[in-house]
Amino acid sequence: MSRKGVGIAAFDRSRITSAQFASHGSSLRATNAQALETQLAVFRSLLQQFAATHAKDIRSDPSFRAQFARMCSAIGVDPLASSNSHNSNSSGSSVWAQLLGKTVNDFYFELAVRIVEVCGATRAENGGLIGLKELRDRVSKGRMEGADSISDDDVRRAVETLKPLGGSYAVVTVGRKEYVRSVPRELSTDQAAVVEAAQVLGYVSVSMLRDNLGWEVARCKTVIEDLMAGGMLWVDKQTKGEWEYWSPGVMADTDGGDAGP
Amino acid sequence: MASTTPSEGFPFPREYFFPAFFTRQPNLTIHHAQLTKWSSLVLAYARHHRIFRLALSAAADSDLFYNRQLDRRLAPPDIREVVDFMRKDGRAEYLQPGDAAAAGAGAGAGDVVLIYWRKPQEWAVLIEAYVDETAQKGSVLTVYELTEGENTRGTEFHGMDNGVLMKALNILVKRGKAQIFGSEDSLGVKFF
């Protein structure tokens, strides 16, 4: 057992030791940070290399693009996070833009523009609530022949890019279906339940809601009227019985030559 | 005129298979969207079948307004609303009793509608272009020649409705590009 000094020199020694620990610690930290920085730089350049080599695939293959985007977000790089300046100088634009010479970046912005167009054009008939798949189909149809295909994931990402504009664009999930909402209107719980119910057969009726959701008739009527006022249901009075209330999304699902519902 | 299959080559749009499309929607915004869709459906249908005049009472039972597959139909008052909507857009016009276009119209006025899948101005442009291309400026053509003659075969206005044709020609007259003369049965047109 070594006996540590009890003299006055012990204070000096402990001061020196703690100073040494501190300096060693900071140098360790520095090397650590440096290593991380190098790693990040390496990774970045690899990512860049990867993106450059596969730019074509990223552009043309929706699932590949989704994977790449997922990879970026997994390491905390938001590929679409663009700073306020929109020009192409490297510091001001997003990772996509830096990596790919703006092409993938632009892909999403262009897609977003098309989404806004389609949402605007269909808002009168669906009250600003459009099925994600329907939206994708409409956007795809409007594109030029031979243009790259679009996945649901792309639509979701493109809608994300619209958020800073404050246009209340958002992807909402009702039941098992995703919608893109383009009006600043939240669905109440009851309304969401009715929208979800209308996914099954394409329509709802008062008695259907009463039987399946166990609601009072008055409640069913109120919710239906609310949704009608919002433009999210169309009434069909020619049923020879109870009126049916149709979800306008059905219009897109049934194709012209098809037998209908 | 109505067949049970709503086909006859015309590809009906998706909304035609949407049951609620045939009920007048109470929501104003939706109603406007509905009228817009009906209007373009009527125009596309008329263009496909080259229909120039539509007798509303008969059309109500045709597959245009009556989807037998769904057993849904657009009620006559709603059809009138669609026509009124189209009129505001310059895409339809009721046949007036005193109108030159009414000549030969079987049904009473107020029932027959001229459907302008091309507006008279557009027809006028087409006719003018034809006359120009075939170097017939200064020459006289009969109205019959224009729509039924061998030379106009293949042009869009071959076989077109006389009433609409006269409206188009009158536009050219107003512009000083044509002159109409002759009597009821043998009208001639001179182009400048």
From TrEMBL, chain A:
Keywords: Cytoplasm, Endosome, Membrane, Protein transport, Transport
Bilayer topology annotation: Peripheral membrane protein
Cell membrane recorded as keyword: no
UniProt-listed GO biological process terms: ATP export; karyogamy involved in conjugation with cellular fusion; negative regulation of transcription by RNA polymerase II; protein targeting to vacuole; protein transport to vacuole involved in ubiquitin-dependent protein catabolic process via the multivesicular body sorting pathway
Localisation: Cytoplasm; Endosome membrane
Any Pfam family the entry gives: EAP30
Record-linked SUPFAM superfamilies: Winged helix' DNA-binding domain (SSF46785)
Any one annotated GO CC term: ESCRT II complex
Keyword Nucleus: no
Major location category of this protein: cytoplasm
InterPro entries: ESCRT-2_cplx_Snf8, Snf8/Vps36, WH-like_DNA-bd_sf, WH_DNA-bd_sf
Subunit structure and binding partners: Component of the endosomal sorting complex required for transport II (ESCRT-II).
Family: Belongs to the SNF8 family.
PANTHER family: EAP30 SUBUNIT OF ELL COMPLEX, VACUOLAR-SORTING PROTEIN SNF8
Role summary: Component of the endosomal sorting complex required for transport II (ESCRT-II), which is required for multivesicular body (MVB) formation and sorting of endosomal cargo proteins into MVBs.
Record protein name field: Vacuolar-sorting protein SNF8
Source organism of the structure: Hypocrea atroviridis (strain ATCC 20476 / IMI 206040) (Trichoderma atroviride)
Lineage: Eukaryota, Fungi, Dikarya, Ascomycota, Pezizomycotina
UniProtKB/TrEMBL annotation, chain B:
Alphabetical keyword list: Protein transport, Transport
Domain of life the protein comes from: Eukaryota
Annotated transmembrane regions: none
Family matches, as SUPFAM superfamilies: Winged helix' DNA-binding domain (SSF46785)
Protein name (Swiss-Prot/TrEMBL): ESCRT-II complex subunit VPS25
KW Protein transport (keyword) present: yes
GO annotation, cellular component aspect: ESCRT II complex
GO BP of this protein: macroautophagy; protein transport to vacuole involved in ubiquitin-dependent protein catabolic process via the multivesicular body sorting pathway
Keyword Protein transport annotated: yes
GO molecular function ontology, one term from the record: protein homodimerization activity
Organism encoding this protein: Hypocrea atroviridis (strain ATCC 20476 / IMI 206040)
InterPro entries to which the protein is assigned, alphabetical: ESCRT-II_cplx_Vps25-sub, ESCRT-II_cplx_Vps25-sub_N, WH-like_DNA-bd_sf, WH_DNA-bd_sf
Family in the record: Belongs to the VPS25 family.
PANTHER family (alphabetical): VACUOLAR PROTEIN SORTING-ASSOCIATED PROTEIN VPS25, VACUOLAR PROTEIN-SORTING-ASSOCIATED PROTEIN 25
